[in-house]
Amino acid sequence: MASKAKKEKDPSVVSYTMSRIRGRDTSIELRLRKALWAEGFRYRKNYRGCKGTPDIVFIGPRVAVFCDSTFWHGLDWSEKKKKIKTNRDFWIKKIERNMARDKKVNEELSNNGWLVLRFSDNEINKELEFCVAKVKEAIASRLTNK
What we know:
Helix content: 40-55%
Largest sheet: 4 strands, mixed
CATH topology: Endonuclease, Chain A
CATH architecture: 3-Layer(aba) Sandwich
CATH superfamily: VSR Endonuclease
Distance between the termini: 72 Å
Shape: globular
Number of domains: 1
CATH class: Alpha Beta
Low-confidence stretches: 1-6
Order of helices and strands: HHEEEHHEHH
Radius of gyration: 18 Å
């Protein structure tokens, strides 16, 4: 019985796939936005008026919402890091820079009076109602504290 050689992904396919990844209007972002809109919430999307360009912003109550991919934002990083097989040095540095940037953005927004919410793709895909409830709760708490 011949052993199966591990198939390497064609670099051109990987390159094409990576080029299709976008920073706005992702599927998880659209899902959360549609759910919030259906609940009657109105917001700004990809708001450049505050640090980090949050995916969803409620300007009055100063609530910034980010929809994060588990891979790109290093969620469950200790496990995910082990699974990177190709170009490890590049990807590990990139993801860890993303994680550091996220932390810095959270701190800066908080210091400027914003409440920051971050939801992972897993949370949005599996617990959408929970995410909407957290946003509702955050907005309500900010409006009552004014």
